[in-house]
Amino acid sequence: MAQQPPVILITGGAQGIGKGVAAHFLDKGWRVVILDQNADAISACRQDFGDPDNLLLVTADVSREPDVASAVEEAARWGQGLDALVNNAGIADPDTGPIEMLELDQWQRRIDVNLTGAFLLAKYTVAHLRQRRGSIVNIASTRALQSEPNSEAYAATKGGLLALTHALAMSLGPDVRANSISPGWIDVTAWQADAPSEPQPLSATDHEQHPSGRVGKPEDVAAMVAYLVSPDASFVTGQNFVIDGGMTRKMIYEE
């Protein structure tokens, strides 16, 4: 009997970085589960990807435990197991204004989606991942390592993801590996559900300020995810990988 293709579950996979990761794994022949709460983005994915047999689209809120439990059960049943989890879902806007004006519900919503969502997905997928000696990849941010003003809630959730990652690696090893990726500036314009037909191009300055010479693409993150969930990374766990074109290593002074 032919071996089943491996199965990957990607949260927040209907647009942005998550959609780029989903496209990469569909091209590699994996069975892909996209979990997203944005129904319009889910519909756009169905059109863009053509609703192939190796794609399951699930509408769910990662911050709600019943949603997560139901979605993971559906995904594991459809895929006859799970090989990898990518915790990508998150409220992406880091600027919440001055901290003295930050409402508790704004803070809590970011914690619930960006951090609690990753915990819930790990909680409900781990039994399936253990059976396949699978892998977890948490998508954090360079803002877990350095900050701009008025980004306390976002930075706290992304820093929490790094700590959650190494804690999971210690708790779940050797059966399940856990790593994180901290992207910098990734241009996701073309991967949004409401992407403009003629997007405004980035400037030469935008690209040149990166030591690598360009702004990042979702494909850059997808390539690292593919490595981390592959047998080639079997000795890699509890680590954070910065994908930012070198920006967190660049000394910047005002001229």
Describe this structure in words.
The chain has helices at residues 16-27, 39-49, 65-79, 104-132, 152-172, 204-208, 218-228, and strands spanning 7-11, 31-36, 55-59, 84-87, 135-139, 177-183, 240-243. Helix 1 packs across helix 7 (218-228), helix 3 packs parallel to helix 4 and helix 4 (104-132) packs parallel to helix 5. The chain has seven helices and seven strands. The model has no long low-confidence stretch (mean pLDDT 95). It has 255 residues and is of the alpha/beta class.
Strand and helix layout:
Blueprint lengths: L6 E5 L4 H12 L3 E6 L2 H11 L5 E5 L5 H15 L4 E4 L16 H29 L2 E5 L12 H21 L4 E7 L20 H5 L9 H11 L11 E4 L12
Helix pairs in contact: 1-7, 3-4, 4-5
Family: Belongs to the short-chain dehydrogenases/reductases (SDR) family.
Keywords: Oxidoreductase
InterPro entries: NAD(P)-bd_dom_sf (IPR036291), Sc_DH/Rdtase_CS (IPR020904), SDR_fam (IPR002347)
